[in-house]
Design a protein that fits this description.
CATH architecture: 2-Layer Sandwich
Radius of gyration: 14 Å
Distance between the termini: 31 Å
Strand order of the largest sheet: 1-2-4-3
Number of domains: 1
Number of strands: 4
Strand content: 15-25%
CATH class: Alpha Beta
Helix content: 25-40%
Number of helices: 3
Structural class: alpha+beta
Oligomer: single chain
Order of helices and strands: HEHEHEE
């Protein structure tokens, strides 16, 4: 299930600004994207919407890891600096309790 409209560049810029203050929520080690790591990233995205992921593997694998996360978790990469990548996923609406 893909989002109907991708984020605009202005929206991505705003999210990158918000992410500057975030610490890396998940670290992807040299073993890559295991099922446990993907589950942790997925949980963090559902809970927070905007997370920072740090890759500790070989630099040549960063883009492939990014594509795998975006594809498997139906989220969007809004930016990266060095080993840190910022991912965003629209949070599901919660029912207000009155």
């Amino acid at each position: 299930m893909q989002d109907a409209t991708p984020l605009s560049s202005a929206e991505k810029k705003e999210l990158r600004g918000m992410a500057q203050r975030l610490k890396a929520h998940v670290h992807v080690g040299k073993n890559g994207l295991t099922e446990n790591v993907l589950a942790e990233i997925g949980t963090a995205l559902l809970k927070n919407g905007l997370i920072k992921v740090r890759f500790e593997s070989d630099r040549s694998q960063y883009k492939e890891l990014e594509r795998d996360i975006v594809h498997k978790l139906n989220c969007e990469c809004v930016g990266s600096v060095g080993k840190s990548f910022v991912f965003f996923k629209e949070m599901p609406p919660t029912e207000a309790t009155n």
